[in-house]
Design a protein that fits this description.
Blueprint (H helix, E strand, L loop, with lengths): L10 H14 L3 H13 L11 H6 L10 H11 L2
Length: 80
Amino acid sequence: MQSKLTLRLDQKLIRRAKAIAKKRGKSVSQIVADYFSSMENTTPTPDDQLTPLVRSLKGALRGRRLDITDYYGYLEEKHR
């Protein structure tokens, strides 16, 4: 059973959505339905919670053996 859903969006965004829908040969409703369906089919991973900056740094030190003395050495060099 289909029901009606009202969305409040900026006029500019509505125009863009309609243009995209026309280009794809779909209705805006179908594009929204497809979007929500695609969200349902994905399993969130822990990486989804990371900010883009943290995600870009993840794994940068993989394979390196660092300990507290490395950190102290870094601080000494930094504050010379």
